[in-house]
Amino acid sequence: MADINNKTPGDDEIRQAIELLFFAYRDFVADPDKVLADYESPKGSLGRAHHRVIHFVGRNPGMTVAELLQILQITKQSLARVLRQLIDEGFVVQERGPEDARQRLLYLTAKGEALETALSTPQRARFRRLFEKAGPEASRSFRTLLLELINEDERDQVLTLIARKQQTSP
Amino acid sequence: MADINNKTPGDDEIRQAIELLFFAYRDFVADPDKVLADYESPKGSLGRAHHRVIHFVGRNPGMTVAELLQILQITKQSLARVLRQLIDEGFVVQERGPEDARQRLLYLTAKGEALETALSTPQRARFRRLFEKAGPEASRSFRTLLLELINEDERDQVLTLIARKQQTSP
DNA sequence: TAAACTAAGTCAATATGGCTGACATAAATA
DNA sequence: TATTTATGTCAGCCATATTGACTTAGTTTA
Lengths: 170, 170
Known about the structure:
In chain A, 65% of the residues lie in helices and 6% in strands.
């Protein structure tokens, strides 16, 4: 009776993994949500969308708007509101591209870096606890499986992105 | 220079895991999103919120509204709109609780089951591919680490929930 | 060089999924 | 009986996303 709804053997483990991913992600994003809720900014509050921008710009200083759009997979109109707010409030600055002057290269300000740290600290703590408990082998295997969960045609791109060495500031 | 922004050793692996989780979840939820986009219902379209309800009611037939709220961690007003739509369109039915007549026990209809299958099929396929490639040991370790990513005080509850044996229909 | 394309920004309208607060009903319990 | 609990509902608000149309400036190409 336990397998009443399972289509093939192993489906129960698969379903459990699907639910675990849901709960893990739910708690994982709840950390920075709490930080943002406490953070009162002048022009409207900051949300998850701002967090994602802060994260990726912090990690990839000098990235273009187009690159950011590709990562977030949202429309430029959606990004516009968020990015405008972050720029207006001094978390992010833009520089015109030295090669291609149409591009706007994005950087965090010191204020932006501070927010990035505040947001990522609880998330890093969550993973650090995990990796310390599980050991290096399981941790490596965890990252490998996460990577293979990503659409096949984007894996190389993601690998390149996350392995990219940190560049210097503007 | 590679560790310029790292606070402690291992931070680079941690940051990579954080980004991988973001991308993995992004692609993971994109599967059912596509299914839902194709699914034209009479009174407004269905979204992720409906998917989550369909999933958990499908997995836990006879669950109460309170249990569902606890899992989703949203307000009852947020759930109300989604649940009302699913009931009105015949995906979900309610039964008054036999012990406690205030409760409304939730079940999927045949139509609801069909939608659940359509939504979960691509997600299951994604995980099946993964688990077949990685082998049982890595797969087990993956689930263990996902579980430990969840808030400590909720882990037992989640374990109980996902390990629960499938019950019979109303 | 003129035409075409590209990177980015903007305006407007709309959908979805959350939230708070207030209040209602019915059933269980102290 | 009085209170608490499970659920539902109304109203308004906010954050995040969408599509479509259009602009500006800079690059590329025919």
